[in-house]
Amino acid sequence: MFSASLVLPKKQSGNSHHASSQTLSSLSVTFLLMGIPGLEHLHIWIGIPFCSMYVVAVVGNVTILAVVRAERSLHEPMFLFLCMLSITDLVLSTSTLPRMLCLFWLGAHDIAFDACLTQMFFIHSFTTMESGFFLAMAIDRYVAICDPLRHTTILSHARITIMGIIVVIRGVAFFSPHPILLKQLPYCRTRIIAHTYCEFMAVVKLACVDIRATKSYSLSMASIIGSCDAILIGVSYAFILRSVFRLPSREAGFKALGTCGSHVCVILVFYSTAGFSIFTHRFGKSVPAHIHIFIANMYLLVPPFLNPIVYGVRTKKIREHVLRTLMIKVA
């Protein structure tokens, strides 16, 4: 697929090799995204479901934002957090899918170094924000079910805004160092990134210095943040389940279980695929590259695709508003 000319030429002496490395780290370098190794012959076909998921993600999340903005009765904690999640999904999917489809369908493997670092920042910071908003929504469900009379008092608009700001600052603060660290590294090996997008771990492997500390920082941040969010979400839903089973009305209990069950399914998909990717980087050296990269794509593509369906279509108020709008237009 890639010719030998795509690999940087070797230098004759150690000094010239060092100079070349330093020059390469400071100039505008072009990297080459390989895609899914071993499945290059299927790229065109893989792009079809990926494109379909992206279209659903964009249409669904834009619809949720438009409906909540237009319907004042939806300006409640649950729907405000849902809007934050929708914006995160739009940025996350748009920062990866269009570029990925160009690779699959047009063979556009080249990506500038700065563009690669920018994509990396959006992917890692907004994935962290996605996790944070899942936690915020779990807290909202906990308060709504376990303390419904004080729901709007506890989660006032001011507190929702503060929670949203904290989630955004956390994502930016912990993962802004990623592109900064990579910008400082010298690159004297191949320019080929064995991935469909600019993931930190895939790019840092191309550096020709000791990267153990850099890799440890990235994996530690992802593991700590993901684990803490997942544990807190689990605790929230454990309390929710305890309250649901204590409800006097069986019908109300089943309704609450159905709503929470669909939410938990989306959360499990996100954390299981993200956890698999982190675990593979740390321990799974024997996992085939195409399986690792395919699953790494899933935790970026599936949640933005599923969130509008689970949180939008299954939410009665949003569904009724969309149907009412469509009926008016048809009439």
What key attributes describe this structure?
about 325 residues; mainly alpha; Rhopdopsin 7-helix transmembrane proteins; three-stranded mixed β-sheet; 13 helices; about 5% strand; globular; disordered N terminus
Strand adjacency order, main sheet: 2-1-3
Give the amount of beta strand, in percent.
Answer: under 5%
Q: Structural class per helix/strand content?
A: mainly alpha
In whole angstroms, how far apart are the ends?
Answer: 54 Å
Number of strands: 3
The averaged pLDDT comes out at 82
| Tally of structural domains | 1
CATH homologous superfamily, by name? Rhodopsin 7-helix transmembrane proteins
- Gross morphology: globular
GO molecular function: G protein-coupled receptor activity; olfactory receptor activity
Organism: Ursus americanus (American black bear)
Membrane topology: Multi-pass membrane protein
Domain G-protein coupled receptors family 1 profile: 60-311
Could you give a quick summary of the protein structure above?
The chain is mostly helical and 331 residues long.
